[in-house]
Amino acid sequence: MPNKQATLFDKVWNEHVISNLGGGFSLLHVDRNFIHDLSGSRALGALSEQGRRVMHPDLTFACPDHTVSTAADATHTGPRYEKCVDPLRQFAADQGITFFDIGTHGFGIIHVIGPELGLTVPGALIVCGDSHTSTHGGLGALAWGIGASEVTHVLATGAVIQKRPKRMRVTFDGAMQPGVTAKDMILFLIGQEGVAAGSGYAVEYAGPAVRALSIEERMTLCNLSIEMGAKVGMVAPDEKTMDYVKGREYAPKGANWDLAVAHWKGLQSDADSTFDEERFVNVADVRPQFTWGTSPEHVIAIDELIPDPSQQSDLEKRNGYAAALEYTGLKAGQSLQGQKIDQVFIGSCTNSRLSDLQEAAGIIQGQKVASHVDAWVVPGSYDIKVAAEAEGLDVIFKKAGFDWRNPGCSLCVGSNGELVPEGGRCVSTSNRNFVGRQGKNSRTHLASPISAAASAILGEITDVRKMMKA
Amino acid sequence: MDKFKSISCVAAPLMRANIDTDLIIPMQRYLLADRKDMHEFAFETLRFLEDGSDNPEFVLNKPAYEGTQILISGNNFGCGSSRESAVWALNGLGLKSIIAPSFGNIFYNNCFQNGMLPIVLDQEIVEKLAEISENSGNNAPFSIDLEAQTVTAPNGEAYSFETEPQRRHQLLEGLDDIGVTLTKVVEIKSFRKADEKNRPWIYN
Q: Do residues A297 and A290 make contact, with C-beta atoms less than 8 angstroms apart?
């Protein structure tokens, strides 16, 4: 029975096939269906209209994150709540689904709380109506984002239809330089490969430099897979993964834990398994990354210059670069360093975990945010906020002049109404720098939490390495 | 879901790569709009000028493309978010098919859930079709035949495309995924029962 040629992806996929539908499509069992206040509310509404019940309410978990205010004085009322949050809460109650409510233990960004609560485990098949569902792959889960109709399908049937993707492995080798983070690794990769390179692939991130990452860093790596076009990003589970999962609220306990660990240890790509595509990155070449344009592939190292559209041989690329520069108000050949900024956002499912906040706090400790900058920290979950406050991170941020806020998706996507002021320039630890993503004419520069923290202090795009203590 | 068999109409060229879901419909708009109203905000930043009036330069505002059901676009169309409202918004504009060299994966899937046909053709062919559309003036109809899997340009040249047989069948018949899957409810339940023994930790 064991397939000697199997990759991590193959092993997890095969375990979930209920039925092969022909043409490469399978009907797959879903272990965790995470639903949130946008696609989740709409999907549950559609299900109710159809008069259907949720097939596996015990495998379905709901938490509002996109539209929830992160302001300290929020009343959590108004049109967004009436349209998105309240229906989710009501549908969850009607259908017997666990709901993590605002301002209580367990609440937060769905991709942050899944792993945090032990709902996300290695080898689990996880779907959610959000493209950053790949985040859960950091623990060796097979996870991808689906549309609202597919969410309704999963609610009604407990299963998802998916065409089997091809397999890509990205091997990260070498030792990371100071000031470089998992965020820089993945932005660098996207810059090299482009935003469509992973389209149609499940990506496995492997190699010594990935093994060296913490579980939280691996989640950051997997989170941005979709920005390279890949719905799935995965890292094989190892001892670190088991240590991370163990003892969490929903994690397996007792005899089930032992069974699970024995199984998870087999979730590795076999030595002789093959991939449809392979990429190699030496992380020693990676420097702190910043995006300059309106696509995650518009990215350079902080000490590089903004590329010249006219030097691009590909017409689409040339046009894309030119349009991006016009939108961001930058010029070819310029340095990003020293560009004055208006806002800093540390948060999102990419970079809002405790280690992100700890690292950012380490950079800013004892310093002040530049007076013209509005700097925000939005912890990824209620529990992260509590943990951060227990070790005094909130005090460090507040003393420096940061706005220490409540959890939610917030400025990453602005669906809760929290936006960068029109035309403002924002260094953001989130995942997309699309036109208008953070508000009308907002100019987003994606970067790591430490790069964002350093930029907040100087009030301009900053090479964090200059602010690190030797 | 509406059936998709064939369409014949002008095709509007919007030749940009990486048209993302935020460009198709901004989050702030999709949030509060009902599905049937999404189209009001489709391509908002391209379609309208600062003062809210129509941007005459935007292809879908040009009289030559009035009533079009076909959009011709660049690589990686629909990249970005999983928001299905991107498809709803385009549907609401009357679009039934998008022709591009490649699509964002999730967007591509979402099309089939909504009676929309995404067609992948080689970049050269897509560029040629766009050029034909721009040069052929008013009312030069393109035809798309899903049964035959062909796109026919106004000059009579036909190009073959492929869709997965299941997806084609469902579009042709207007079948909804849930109904089809629920015919397998016995298999789904017996899978879970066996899986509870094989992987009990998933169900604790």
A: no
Question: Of A268, A262, A416, A252, which Cα lies nearest the Cα of A348?
Answer: A416
Place of tokens 């047989």: B165
8-state DSSP, A467:
G
pLDDT given at position B136: 78
Measured distance CA(A396)–CA(A384) in Å, rounded? 15
* Contact between A305 and A334 (Cβ < 8 Å): yes
Q: Are A32 and A119 in contact (CB under 8 A)?
A: yes
Is B192 touching A (CB cutoff 8 A)? yes
- Cβ partners under 8 Å of residue A30, min gap 6: A16, A56, A59, A125, A126, A127, A154, A158, A159, A160
Taken in order of first residue, the domains within chain A and their CATH numbers are 8-278 (3.30.499.10), 290-467 (3.30.499.10)
CATH number of B6-173: 3.20.19.10, 1.20.1250.20, 3.40.190.120, 3.40.350.10? 3.20.19.10
How many angstroms separate the CA of residue B79 from the nearest CA in chain A? 7
* Phi, psi angle pair for A370, to nearest 5°: -55, 145
Which of B23, B84, B112 would you mutate first to test chain A, the one with the most A CBs within 10 A? B84
Cβ contacts of residue A281 below 8 Å, gap of 6+?
A170, A171, A172, A173, A185, A188, A189, A192, A209
> How many Å is the Cα radius of gyration of chain A?
21
Cβ contact B199–A252 (<8 Å) = no
Window 372-401 of A: residues touching B by CB (8 A cutoff) are none
Residues of chain B scoring pLDDT < 50: none
Q: How many CB atoms lie within 10 A of CB B54?
A: 12
Judged by a CB distance cut-off of 8 A, whether residue B46 touches chain A is: no
Residues of A whose CB is below 8 A from B76:
195-196, 199, 229
pLDDT in tens, A213-233: 999 999 999 999 999 999 999
Token digits of residue A414: 């602005």
- pLDDT for res A1: 43
What is the model's pLDDT at position A92?
96
Is A19 in the B-facing interface, judged by CB distances under 8 Å? yes
| Minimum distance, in Å, between the CA of residue B189 and any CA atom of chain A | 9
Return the bridge partners of A282, or none: A173
pLDDT in tens, A229-276: 999 999 999 999 999 999 999 999 999 999 999 999 999 999 999 999
Of B188, B193, B168, the closest CA to residue B178 belongs to B188
- Give CA–CA dist A183/A188, Å, rounded: 8
Q: How far apart are CA B85 and CA A66, in angstroms?
A: 15
